[in-house]
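Journal club side-thread
Mid-discussion, someone asked how the predicted structure for our own chain would compare to the paper's figures. Pasting it here so we can look after the session.
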Amino acid sequence: MVAKMTSKNQITIPKAVASKFSSPYFDVRQEGGKIILTPVNPDAAAQVRSKFDELGITEDDIADAIVWAREAR
C-alpha cells in the first residue's frame, strides 16, 4: 500500500491497516530511513513519560540506551 504525505505533513493510514488497531494513538519514530508507528495507550504513555521526567531521563538517554543494547557483544 502507498500513502501520500500532504503539504501539511499529514499521512492517512489505509483503512485496511488502521482497522487492525483499537487505539487511534501511535508513537512515531524515525529509524534507518523508515518511519515506525507503534500503537500506544495514551494514558499509559503519559504515565511513562511522567516517570521519565521525574527521573530526569531524556529522549537522548533512551536513544543511547537502545544503541548500547543493540551493540554486538
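Post-session note: The helical segments are 15-18, 42-55, 59-70.
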